[in-house]
Amino acid sequence: MLRSQIASAARAARATTRGYASATVPPVSTASRSHEIVVIGGGTAGLAISHQLLRSGEFSSDDIALVDPAKWHNYQPGWTLVGGGLKTREELRRPLESLIHPKINFYNEGVRTFSPEENYIRLGNGDKINYDHLVVAPGVTLNFGSVKGLSEALAAPDSAVSTIYSYDSCANVFPSIEKLKEGNAIFTQPAGVIKCAGAPQKIMWLALDYWKKAGLYNPSQPTSSAINIAFATGTPTMFGVPKYNAKLEELRQERGVEGLFQHDLVAIEGKKATFARPDGAAKVTRDFDLLHVVPKMGPHAFVKESPLANEAGYVDVDDGTTRHKKFNNVWSAGDASSLPTSKTAAAITAEAPVLVQNLTRVLEGKEPDAVYDGYTSCPLLTEYGKVLLAEFKYGGAPKETFGKWLGIDQAIPRKEFYYLKKNFFPWVYYNSMVEGTWGGPKGWL
Ligand code: UQ1
């Protein structure tokens, strides 16, 4: 059968199901609905994938459904800029519904359960949604409970504790940097997987630059400066990719930032922060006057506790095709997926076209042939006006877009990359990426 014939046969079958359902339940009920493709998540991955699917021209109204309980969609890569006083959180968000094409059926609901053996999901309101193919892209959740006292510290008025990782808190970061005139500033990063692994230090580099310009921090005499700066990370190094780590470690030493490696924040009590150490070593407690915290992150419970998850709780897909290892009609990309790469919007520019090509091929009765190579990127602000543009693939191998074109080394922070990060990426994100027309390093799709 031709692809269009398959689709119309499937539509006819679904129409029958719907008719039957409406004959047996009260007409107002939406108790059971069916779609050719159901996408879970209206974040970066969910929007890019749904709209790339729609643009393939193979789908009619309501063939694709998107499920997300959120009212707002945030451009999260911009929250570091909010923390640095360069943007407002309000200008970075849009009502989620306004970003979803009218031909896509939007369920503004959460997911209660997945039933991949029977090809349906159950929404938070109890409704059952059947699908032919399921794309799971709800992202990850922040575990504020991973640090004792964190939620209370973030909520306290005029708190010395803040984070760029949430809409609520990111607006407090810059005022707390501006307010600090002396004392210890500590910037943390947890052990384990987080989104945008560079962000915990981006905000530190901006704060350092701010205090330097304010005459409160002298990188060549850090101990006699009014402000002392420490980077306390649960990881063993500044960055997971050796090439960029070398540069960032050099900057840390040059700029007099104390490196507390394998220090994993576990508790905040008043103005004291406590860190767990590996191998049963005694905990370390430090006094702070400013604490920038990054909580631990992990899969949502409804994913982790589902048959779709791997041991770690992520949607268990093939590293190359993005197709589920057990359920052939389930796919995943973005932060919720098991794809072993760094979780960024940039990664999604490369994952989404692979997922979409493979899914549409399977609908045509063919085998998946597109392969994701693990591409991801971290535009790492190292000061106001400069960005180190880390770009790499699986195994931490650099894959530099501009290095290839212009013969430059992207480990060297540049002003051109700063303007990409500050102006171009947020612009192209809302003008193209969420609409399914942006392919990252490949340009417009
Ligand atoms: C990108 O496309 C993108 O999305 C808009 C980002 O924003 C979050 C990025 O950080 C990066 C690095 C890319 C990749 C694009 C190019 C041109 C390198």
TrEMBL record:
Alphabetical list of Gene3D superfamilies matching this protein: FAD/NAD(P)-binding domain
Domain FAD/NAD(P)-binding: 36-150
Domain of life, source organism: Eukaryota
PANTHER family given in the database record: SULFIDE:QUINONE OXIDOREDUCTASE (PTHR10632), SULFIDE:QUINONE OXIDOREDUCTASE, MITOCHONDRIAL (PTHR10632:SF2)
Organism for this UniProt entry: Aspergillus cavernicola
Name this polypeptide is given: FAD/NAD(P)-binding domain-containing protein
